[in-house]
Amino acid sequence: MGRLEGKSVIITGAASGIGRAASLLFTKEGAKLIAVDRSEAVKETVDQVHKAGGIAEAVIADAGSENDVRAFIDKAVSKYGRLDAIWANAGISGGLVPIAEQTVEHWQEILRINLIGPFLAIKYAMPHMIKQQYGSIVCTASVAGLKSGASGHPYAASKAGVISLVQTTAYSLSGTGVRINAVCPGLIETGMTKPVFDRAKERGTQDKIGQLNPLKRAGQPHELAAMGLFLASDEASYVNGQAFPVDGGLTAS
Ligand code: NAD
């Protein structure tokens, strides 16, 4: 029996990287999935799930839009009868822009997707999960939200906000049976970081990637998916309100 056997699950940012790896792993473990992304490529994720014998439906939606979030959560509940877990994973980096050139619009768009998106997922998932007295919410933050580094300012601020949101929400969910946690990826090879890897390949410096962490390599999406699976599943039944780095030890050094 799979670790998410029969569970109704939503994953956002499911067209690529961590969200795609999680979609494949969760459904392999028996989840019935609503795979959400604003990119049409989410249909390829769902095709891959179906080829592997899993259950999933693709929804093209904006994870930072209140109407869209309400609609895809309602869809999961009407299709599968309940909502056991949601992984608010969609995010954008916004790149490295000097402060003097950053605009309010640039900040607002990053905060809208990276921070308000998880808030909306929590807001609309909570009532269903509280009614069930059961549920697990996972949010993707980042090591950029834990320590200073070379990330963009609004990105790092949005991810620090996600960690704070998760911690405060754990208390708001006191006594409901609903858990919430964050994962904090280090450098992971995904669509988001492709420019970094492409540049390094051009310069022949790919061996230098990931050298800042004790494992001396970048992470792969399935290594994040594994942490998300643990947090979404009953194996993490006493794990709540925490932010877990999955970073090869970067934040330990
Ligand atoms: P990715 O670009 O491969 O995947 C992100 C997915 O989110 C894409 O499919 C994109 O279309 C989708 N998305 C973006 N905005 C959206 C929106 N408004 N609505 C719906 N979908 C949207 O990148 P990834 O690395 O897999 O990113 C997943 C999460 O991991 C993000 O929150 C990111 O900030 C976080 N993260 C990644 C790294 C890394 O090194 N890759 C490090 C730290 C944190």
From TrEMBL:
Transmembrane segments: none annotated. The keyword Oxidoreductase applies. Coiled coil: none annotated. Keywords: Oxidoreductase. The keyword Transport does not apply. SUPFAM superfamilies: NAD(P)-binding Rossmann-fold domains. It comes from the Bacteria. It holds the Pfam family adh_short_C2. InterPro entries: NAD(P)-bd_dom_sf, Sc_DH/Rdtase_CS, SDR_fam. Belongs to the short-chain dehydrogenases/reductases (SDR) family. This is NAD(P)-dependent dehydrogenase, short-chain alcohol dehydrogenase family. GO terms for molecular function: oxidoreductase activity.
